[in-house]
Amino acid sequence: MKDLRNLNKKRIEIYEIQEYLQIDDYEKLVEAVIKLINEGVITPIKSSKQNGKKPSLFNRYNIEKKEEDNSKYINELCYKLNIILDKTYYMKNIDKYKRDRNYVIKLSKFLDEKQELLNTEVSANERSFQIWGREKFLIKEGGKRILKNLNVSGKFLNIYSTTEPLAYYSHHKNSPQKILIIENKDTFYSMRKHMIKGNNNILGEEISTLIYGGGKSIYKTFKDFEYCVEPYLLHRCNKILYLGDLDYEGIIIYEGLYEIFKDNFNIKPFVKGYKFMIDKYIKENMILPDTKEGQNRNIGKIFIEEFTVEYKNKILDILEGGKYIPEEILNISDF
């Protein structure tokens, strides 16, 4: 008997079965349909109703998918993959295993043949290339999902995340010194240009090193601070100052930095810089831009408590008035 599955259809009418099997006699058609049902090839669609003949048949049937023989993959999961890998998920999801199989096998082969490489901590991209020959696979191309399916942790792979290199300029390399972290690129470039000319007095403060923060990405970079800078910047007597936009987001960035540095360094807002920004806007009667939508306004007190009552009130008036002062209010002529 010809296989109805070769029609590549999900449903079939009774007359189509008759035509495909080339059966003229109704009783033989009934026998064929019963046989197909018993073999699990088709199942009746009861909502299609019966054809009214004796014995009656339903007018429409589902063509069931042929069950695949997965014994090869089950055997592979049970007996051929490295014992460290937890195969539970893939045993329950063979189709997912077929999709991920090449990557799982590469990981298994790595553990079989090169597991000693895990004794050396390397970056996630470096480990990814060792295992799969694709440096981005682990982080960006599905590697995390496969590791999760196999119950393998990043800790087991002995990897670390990398951050963007820290951009900074030092007027000198003596310690202790004052370090100024600048949130925005334009202000960093202007201040660096000022310092390259031999001037390290910025808004009334002697600054020895400028560091570019880069907004919210600052957290990840500064958590690796000790690996990103030269030893003179790690001196515990150094003073770290921070200057960013005078808005909720800029203050929250400072609060996050404070938590990172407070146990090892003396970190404060660059009060003279913020006061200059406020004074300039008032003196020049500037119209301030509106606060960006969606900002988290839940700021603490560690920033604002560094200011006098006069400037606290001015800051709160700006913030509560739905305005902010961008750091770009400063330019090289101000320094």
Automatic annotation (TrEMBL):
In terms of superkingdom, the source organism counts as Bacteria
Q: Where is the Wadjet protein JetD C-terminal domain?
A: 163-260
Name of this protein: Wadjet protein JetD C-terminal domain-containing protein
